[in-house]
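Before the break, one more example. Copy the sequence into your notebook; we will annotate it together after we see the structure.
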Amino acid sequence: MGILTSLFRPKPQERRAVIEINNSFTAFSGTAYASATFRAAVDAIARHAGKLTAHSDDKGLETLLQSTPNEYMTLYDLLCKTAAAYFTSNNAFILLQREQRGIRNVYPLTPSSVEFTPGTDGQLYITCLFHDGKQATFPYGDIVHLRRHFYAGDLLGDSNAPLFPLLDTAQTLNQGIAASVKNGVNIRGVLKFTSLVNPEQVRREKEQFVADYFNPTNSGGVAATDQRFDFIPTNTTPYTIPQEQIEAVNRQIYDYLGISPKIVSGSYSEDEFSAFYESVIEPFALQLSQEFTRKAGAEITFTAERLEFSSAATKIRLLHEAAPLGLMTLNEARKLLALPPVPDGDKRLQSLNYVSADKANQYQLESEVSENDTANTGV
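Here is what the structure looks like once it is written out:
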């Protein structure tokens, strides 16, 4: 937040009481994103969301977004960070830094809490408290705000409270696996002394035995004794957590985020990715486009070149069917095949087997006139 604090010093606004609505928001403590399963799922979504491309009639704004939204990150960084916040906290905030000529920079914000208050000028303001303890106030009209699970609150998406029991279960399973592995390599047993020994001597002998043999350096797992005592091992079978149980919990976390394990592992098929795009990435892109358009004052759309993720067979079939119709330029076809553009590649080529409807009608009329003339001349 130090960078943002130095860049933005909004004028203090005289504020009235806090708006009487459910408008307080505290991000999850971090336990969710600290979960390896949850983070892997969110990261998979964020990586694909980062591939979105910005388009706008305002070419200056489009260039800003596509090249350097701000001096510290690329559009991919901006989208990845925004998507991660969106799915982790169910709220994502992007600051539009304006100047007289328009928007100068675009910054993603990750506050720990926010508060909405009205200003004396009639505008709504948002005060962000950041993790380093600093806070800043911005006009809500300069904040691109994305919400997930938008139901109970008036301005903010609901919390991930239904997810917490799943994360606790996943953490318990991970701890159980670690404990099972640790118990499996430990020596367990009872020291039976062969003669009468006072309690203090028993304690010292036990501590010495543990120090000698119950430590990581005893890699052989072997203990030695003399005639003073016998070591009687206790056979304990470590409990092994069924893999099906672990997968079931992970699957519930994935289901909560709307993705499949194959998306997380990157082993998805073309149809599986298409379903993931339509159910997760496309709604995110739509909300991002609408909110950017509403706050930036210019139409902005975020789209993905979905065909780039298609199989080679699908790409070749598309080129075979679309190119003869003149639907693609040479460079568009080359881009689909991951080839660089060529200088004269913006031409549209079309097969002579296809003509426009107007020309087809004209050709048919000319043919009918020619046939009538032939009949009249008797030739």
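Residues 2-160 form one domain. The chain has three domains: 2-160, 189-233, 310-379. Try to locate both features in your own notes.
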